Amino acid sequence: MELAEARQQFIQSWGVMGSQWGINRTMSQVHALLLISEEALCADDIMAELNISRGNANMNIRALLDWGLVYKHFKAGERKEFFVAEKDLWTAARKVIKERKKRELEPVLDMLETLNSTEFTGDEEKVRQFSKRVADVRTFARQSDKLLSGIVKSDRKWFLGGFARLFGK
Amino acid sequence: MELAEARQQFIQSWGVMGSQWGINRTMSQVHALLLISEEALCADDIMAELNISRGNANMNIRALLDWGLVYKHFKAGERKEFFVAEKDLWTAARKVIKERKKRELEPVLDMLETLNSTEFTGDEEKVRQFSKRVADVRTFARQSDKLLSGIVKSDRKWFLGGFARLFGK
DNA sequence: AGAAACTTTCAATAAGTTTTGAAAGTTCAT
DNA sequence: ATGAACTTTCAAAACTTATTGAAAGTTTCT
Known about the structure:
The structure is a homodimer. Chain A has helices at residues 3-20, 25-35, 43-50, 54-67, 89-116, 124-153, 156-160, and strands spanning 41-42, 70-73, 82-85. The first copy, chain A, is mostly helical. The first copy, chain A, has two domains: 3-85, Arc Repressor Mutant, subunit A, CATH 1.10.10.10; 89-159. Chain A has a three-stranded antiparallel β-sheet with strand order 1-3-2. Chain A is elongated and about 70 Å long. The termini of chain A are far apart. Chains A and B meet through helix 1, helix 5, helix 6 and helix 7 of A and helix 1, helix 5, helix 6 and helix 7 of B. Chain B binds a DNA duplex through helix 4.
């Protein structure tokens, strides 16, 4: 198989996965491209490889920097900016978990805390039942938050090591 | 606070979270509505509560059944179908993980396995570097898959119990 | 200060996704 | 076999999100 073809396959597949998880397809593709690139790439390289406009490239590169998945890299004698991906995927995954937890889980958690400490007006029995459900969901969400925090704080060994001992007991 | 208002807040917030994770907003809202409903609801109840069309309600209820997050419920003497949510969120979460793993992680894993056992044509050094990157990503993806499988198989106690002992050691 | 090299912004447009609603399909009771 | 009750389908419309490209902005060099 041609190397170029294999690269495209990797980039496409990574893009599809991203879009299924609510991440802009182009952003995932830029990430994929940088992941498999040894050399730091500049905006023009990325535009050319992925066939996208300058604006689109710029916006998605900024987003990746923002997530901490890509770093700026300056080459001596070159004026433009180059970019490299965080190549350690465990580090990258932890950043994604941390960030999504903050952006997407915490607002729900806040809503649940608020509802949990509010008194409702309405049919007494219905209020009782609703409060019970909210409390259940809150417990679950807090537990999930705790689990994710633990993962973010844990080190590579935990991830690389066997998980067998962690479950079922 | 009015009970009705609180219900809307819960439903909206759950809908936003879903959409951020690549799940149709209406589907999350139907799920939220069923989660906080003691009684089983029929299509018309859901249409009325969420102000959506019959087609939309039907399509999203089917999807939730498909994910195993909602069950059909028949009421004696009633001809129409009623629906209830799986109220145990740990059970629901495991189903979601299992399903997303299958639908969204496994295709990437397959791509990585294929690329990993393919010889590439092209500049020798570039091929070597690309293969190394693919191997790295594959290792990470397999490890993630293993971790998720463990979670899916683990029991509630593991989730409810303290995670402290699991990390950092 | 001016010009070149580069990055960012943003309004217009394109692409993609979701929703609707009416028609077709199904099931069940008589 | 018919009709009422209910569910499913699907093409068209509405809505949302992503992308473009040209203009504006910034930085660096002489």
